[in-house]
Amino acid sequence: MTQQTAKVFVPSSTAPAPPQAAARDTAQAGTVRIRLWDLPIRLFHWSLALLVLAAFVTAKVGGPWMAWHGRAGVAIAGLIAFRLVWGLVGSTHARFASFAPTPSRLRAYVTGKWQGIGHNPLGALSVFGLLALLAVQVGTGLVGNDDIDFNGPLFDLVTKERSDSLTGLHHQLSNVLLVLIGLHVAAILFYALVKRTNLVKPMLTGWKESTLAHPVRSGSVPGLIVALLAAFGAMFVASGELLREPDPAPPAAASAPSPSMAPPPPASTPSW
Ligand code: HEM
Ligand code: HEM
C-alpha cells in the first residue's frame, strides 16, 4: 500500500503582513494548517447526520414512510461498516488508534495534560458510543416489525416474539440515541461558545489551525476501496437480499387463479 506523508502546511503569516492585517494574523502566529478530517470522514459524518435525522422523521411519520425508514437504516449500516474499515486504513486522525480513549489518555485529559489534535479522549468515548449504539439500533430495526404492515428485511431470521421484544428495545434505544446526539451537539456548542474553538469548520473544510505541528498521513486508495466494498457488502446483507428466495416461474396463463381466488399479500417487506 502506498502512503503519502507530511501534509502539514506552514501559515502564510510567516511573510510580512500589511498593517491592517496584522491584528488578524496575530491570532494565527505560530500556528500551522493541518489536514484534520479527510474527505471520506467528512462525507461519512454529514451523510450519517442526515440519514439519522431521516430515520427519526420517517419513524415518527410512520405508515408508508416506514419503507424509507428501513432504507435510511440500511444505508446507515453501510456507513458504519465503512467507518469501521476507515478507522483502520484512513488518514492519521481518522484512525481509531490515533484517538482510542486509553486510560492514560483519559487520565491526561481530566488532569488537563492532554495535548493533541482530533478527537479528545472524552470525545472519542462519545464517538465509539454513538457508533456502537447506531449499530445496535440498526440491528434491532432490521429484525423489527410495526405490527401493521412493515417488517424489517431480516425479520424472517427471528421468531415474532423475539422480533417484538427487539422492536421494544429499538424504541427505547432511540431515546438513548437522542440523548447522546443532544450531548454531542451540546459539546460542540460548548467548545464554540466557552472555549472559543470552532470544531465544525474542520468537519466542513477538513483544515484546522493548530500550534501542534506533526505529519499527517493520507489514507490509502486500496484501503478506500476495501472500505467501500465493506459498505456495499453490509448494505447488501442488511437489505435481506441473501434471504430472498428466487421468484417462482409465472404460472401458465390458463391455470392462473382468478383475482378473487388469489391469497392475500404477505405483510410487506418493501423492495430495498
Ligand atoms: C440508526 C437507525 C435507526 C433509527 C435512528 C431508528 C429510529 C426509530 C424510532 C425513533 C422509532 C420509534 C418510532 C415511534 O416513536 O413510533 C423506530 C421504530 C421502528 N424502526 Fe427504526 N430506526 C433505525 C433503523 C431502523 C432499521 C434499519 C429498521 C429496519 C429496516 C427499522 C425498523 C423499525 C421498526 C419496524 C420500528 C417499529 C415501528 C412501530 O412500532 O410502529 N429501524 N425506529
Ligand atoms: C444525527 C446527528 C449526528 C450524529 C449521529 C453525529 C455523529 C458523529 C460521529 C460518529 C462523529 C465522529 C466522527 C468520526 O471520527 O467518525 C462526529 C464528530 C463530529 N460531529 Fe457529529 N453527529 C451528528 C450531528 C452533528 C451536528 C449537527 C454537528 C454540528 C453542529 C456535528 C458536528 C461534529 C463535529 C464538529 C465533529 C468532530 C468533533 C471533534 O472535533 O472531535 N455533528 N459526529
Layout of helices and strands, plus pairs?
Layout: E1 8-9, H1 19-26, E2 32-35, H2 39-61, H3 66-89, H4 96-99, H5 103-110, H6 121-142, H7 160-193, H8 200-205, E3 207-210, H9 221-238
Antiparallel strand pairs: 1-2, 2-3
Helix pairs in contact: 2-3, 3-6, 3-9, 6-7
The structure holds protoporphyrin IX containing FE (2 copies).
What does this structure look like?
There is one protein chain. By secondary structure, the chain is mostly helical. It has one domain: Fumarate Reductase Cytochrome B subunit. 54% of the residues lie in helices and 4% in strands. The chain is built from nine helices and three strands; from the N terminus they run βαβαααααααβα. Strands 1-2-3 form a three-stranded antiparallel beta sheet. 25% of the residues are buried. The site of one protoporphyrin IX containing FE has 19 residues, from α2, α6, α7 and α8.
Quick summary of this structure?
The chain has 272 residues and is mostly helical. Helix content is 54%, strand content 4%. The chain has one domain (33-241): Up-down Bundle (Fumarate Reductase Cytochrome B subunit), CATH 1.20.950.
List keywords for this structure.
Fumarate Reductase Cytochrome B subunit, three-stranded antiparallel beta sheet, 3 strands, 4% strand, elongated, binds protoporphyrin IX containing FE
User: Helix proportion of residues, in percent?
Assistant: 40-55%
Unreliably modeled segments: 1-27
Give the overall form: elongated
Ions, cofactors and other ligands present here are: protoporphyrin IX containing FE
